[in-house]
Amino acid sequence: MATVSVVMGSDSDMPVMAKAMEILEKFGVDYEVRIISAHRQPDIFFDYAKTAKDRGVKLIIAGAGKAAHLPGMCAALFEGPVIGIPMKTSDLGGVDSLYSIVQMPTGIPVATVAINGGANAGILAIKMLAMTDDSLAGSLHNFLEEQKDSVAAKDAKLNTEGYKAFL
Ligand code: RP5
Q1: Cβ(13) to ligand 1 under 6 A?
Q2: How far does residue 50's CA lie from ligand 1's centre (Å)?
Q3: Is 63 helix (H, G, I), strand (E, B) or coil?
Q4: In what order do the strands lie in the sheet with 82-86?
Q5: Model confidence pLDDT, tens digit, residues 51-68
Q6: pLDDT value for 1
């Protein structure tokens, strides 16, 4: 049984969705992953989203581009939280995807991350799950501390070696 469901509208979304899955794997969170198009396969999509809760899914990470209705329709059909990832697009730069995902009507929210924000979607999922999982909360704490330390290490390098060391 997968705790998180990762779904994307097309295989062209995979490089961004992989960033979210890498985070889930890093924290040892079970997930299922699907390519389902809400527009091209509405019946299959409907069944996927309607049965997610019964499959044990606690939250959905959904990525899509252009007229990106997949995350919003996940939120309409699934009662748990949905994290939406807007894909960068060639014609409108991903603003089309962003607006399609973020501007949800009252009552049906989608927690929308940045355009191509796959890693942040994964981290946000971990933060949500860590609220009721002490072991995950500990791993999250260590991750955030390591992130803090890595910036401090760059600052120390800047001060000892100068800016040219970064060029
Ligand atoms: C969306 O249309 C997908 O999420 C993808 O980002 C976009 C383009 O899909 P393809 O034409 O690459 O399959 O449904």
Answers
A1: yes
A2: 22
A3: strand
A4: 31-35, 4-8, 59-64, 82-86, 111-112
A5: 999 999 999 999 999 999
A6: 82
Residue with tokens 């809400």: 38
CA–CA distance, 149 with 55 (Å, rounded to integer): 39
CB atoms within 10 A of CB 106: 5
Does residue 64's CB lie within 6 angstroms of at least one atom of ligand 1?
Answer: yes
With a 6 Å cutoff on the Cβ, whether 66 touches ligand 1 is yes
Task: Identify the burial level of 121 via C-beta atoms within 10 angstroms of its C-beta, where 0-12 means exposed, 13-18 middle and 19 or more buried.
Answer: buried
- Evaluate: CB of 65 within 6 angstroms of ligand 1: yes
Q: Is 93 exposed, middle or buried (0-12, 13-18, 19+ CB in 10 A)?
A: exposed
Beta bridge partners of 63: 8, 85
> How much is the pTM?
0.96
Domain edges within the chain: 4-132, 134-167
Cα–Cα distance measured from residue 153 to residue 161, given in angstroms and rounded to the nearest whole number: 12
CATH architecture of 4-132: 3-Layer(aba) Sandwich (3.40)
